[in-house]
Design brief:
Elements (H helix, E strand, L loop, with lengths): L2 H24 L1 H39 L10 H6 L9 H4 L3 H15 L2 E2 L7 H5 L7 E5 L24 H12 L16 H4 L3 E5 L4 E2 L11 H15 L4 E5 L1 H6 L9 E5 L17 H11 L11
Parallel strand pairs: 2-3, 2-5, 5-6
Antiparallel strand pairs: 1-4
């Protein structure tokens, strides 16, 4: 290449380098801003996807531990009603009112906008585990546990392996102290009370759902009307059912139970907050339940956890 041509080529390349340098000085903020937006959007999408996947995995995990078939009750109102199983028949008059539809709409919105418990597939777990025709005992709780991987749709019960919460520990103390019940201390990570439900115990919370971290946050959802209807149906169509009403809210919902037909055993709530008024470890309801069942010619409850 001639000296003249080489000089021309060098000048051309030098000019290109200068243009590039000027371009990089003028547009870096724009480029970085665009890159940042894309990275932020990608990060948010990844986080949202991860959250959805974690929720799905949590549901699968709890459902596997409870033996539940995973299905979504919030897909439609018919699905919501369908999760009640054989309880639809005694509740059929109530289910024709607008109240249960309002509960469905409320719960569907809550679960779509915030973290709630139990997993939606387990909202009606208590009704799946204890069929209406086989009910012998009703234990009334308040509302679900508010921490992750605890609530499973049965009052006081948690899937294993999860550390036993304080209220359940006090229930264990009462069982251990009850001289007429041969109760063996379960593992500290065993609070799964499904075996009780399987023996005909409806483990019913007054309010069936809750926002994560906020106790009784779904109190205005309409659930109380629903659980009152459940108690009324049992009161009307069954005989000799034993209601364990622990604490003021449980006692209030059982106040209209016909005590000539049924048995209502009342005591303070097992929560540590209630122990200064009445120590739950002195509650003898467990042996009393079996005495009443014996008088009725029914099988006693095995309170030990399988």
């Amino acid at each position: 290449m001639s000296a003249k041509k080489q000089t021309s080529m060098d000048s051309f390349l030098k000019g290109k380098r200068k243009v590039k340098e000027v371009d990089e000085k003028v547009t870096p903020a724009k480029k970085n801003n665009s890159t940042g937006k894309k990275a932020g959007a990608k990060k948010a999408a990844t986080k949202a996807k991860k959250s959805v996947e974690e929720t799905k995995e949590e549901v699968k995990e709890i459902a596997a531990k409870t033996g539940d078939v995973i299905s979504d009750p919030l897909t439609s109102y018919d699905d919501f009603v369908g999760h009640l199983g054989d309880w639809k028949e005694p509740l059929q008059k109530y289910l024709k009112t607008s109240n249960f539809k309002q509960i469905f709409e409320y719960v569907k919105k809550e679960y779509s906008t915030t973290k709630c418990y139990p997993p939606k597939e387990l909202i009606f777990n208590a009704f799946k585990k204890a069929q209406f025709k086989n009910i012998k005992v009703v234990i009334v709780g308040q509302d679900p546990y508010i921490k992750e991987n605890e609530a499973m749709g049965l009052c006081f019960s948690i899937p294993k392996p999860t550390k036993t919460p304080p209220s359940l520990k006090n229930i264990y103390k009462a069982l251990k102290k009850d001289s007429k019940v041969d109760f063996k201390d379960p593992d500290p990570m065993h609070g799964d009370l499904q075996s009780w439900a399987d023996q005909g115990i409806l483990m019913l919370n007054v309010v069936l759902t809750v926002r994560a971290g906020v106790s009784f946050s779904h109190a205005k959802s309409g659930w109380t009307t629903f659980t009152n209807e459940v108690i009324s149906a049992i009161n009307k169509d069954n005989e000799g059912v034993i209601f364990l009403a622990w604490g003021g809210k449980a006692q209030a919902i059982c106040k209209n139970v016909n005590r000539a037909k049924h048995h209502v055993l009342e005591y303070g709530h097992p929560s540590p907050l209630a122990q200064k008024f009445m120590k739950f470890e002195d509650c003898d309801h467990f042996s009393r339940v079996n005495e009443i069942l014996g008088e009725q010619g029914k099988d006693a409850i095995d309170w030990n956890l399988s």
